[in-house]
Amino acid sequence: MPSNIHMIGHNLGAHVLGVCGANFYKLTKKKIGRITGLNPKGPMPISPWERLMNLRRLLKKDDAEFVDLIHTAKVDKFPRTTGHVEFYPNGGKTPQPGCTKENIENNMNDPENEDDETKQILELFCSDARSYEYYNESITNKSAFFSKLYDPKTKQTMKNENLPTNHMGHN
After folding, report:
1. What are the start-end ranges of the E strands in the chain?
2. Where is the Lipase domain (predicted)?
3. Opening angle at CA 51, ends 47 and 87, nearest 5
4. Residue 24 — very low, low, confident or very high, per pLDDT cuts 50/70/90?
5. What structural domains does the chain harbor?
6. Which long-range contacts (CB under 8 A, 24 or more apart) does 86-92 make?
7. Could you give the C-alpha distances from 97 to 7, 53, 90, 111, 170, in angstroms and in order?
């Protein structure tokens, strides 16, 4: 049953799964049950030729019955992907907990010889990896990632206890 299929992809792999879901639907007229995108980012820049040929396609909520996304290293210059539900642990920004320059320096062999740009890149990679680390943790700890509704316009977490809540990750 296609509705029982759950595909999980990290970064650009999430977009590959979107293409798989769309092509599966074209062939069968049935949607895959779920696609989980772990920190899906789009390749940039997109040239006019690539846009014309539709070579860079992003994961979208039409690609499966349910598309959920976990953003842990949001970079504003990347195109935004939309799912049915999107989670932004710790605001979805870099650095995620444990990914600060100081933590990275403590794990380097020779932090004095690494420039700030290298440390920023490592901070981004570390934060990016948090998406699948959080997802893995959600498999063994079902109540680890309780979420609240967030209003992006006001940048506030909604505090009304009657609003819907959800758990991030595998459930």
Report:
1. 6-10, 34-38, 66-70, 85-87, 146-147, 150-151, 156-157, 166-167
2. 2-147
3. 100
4. very high
5. 2-92+129-167 (3.40.50.1820)
6. 87/145, 87/147, 87/168, 88/150, 89/130, 89/134, 89/145, 89/168
7. 27, 40, 8, 19, 21
Query: pLDDT per residue over 127-153, tens digit each?
Result: 999 999 999 999 988 778 878 776 666
In the block, tokens 């890149």 appear at 121
* Nearest-angstrom CA–CA distance, 166 and 171: 10
In whole angstroms, what is the distance from residue 37 CA to residue 68 CA?
6
Pairwise CA distance, residues 57 & 136, whole Å: 27
Q: What are phi and psi of 156, to 5 degrees?
A: -125, 145
- 143: which 2 tokens? 């109540």
pLDDT digits (tens, 9 = 90+) for 73-88: 876 656 666 899 888 8
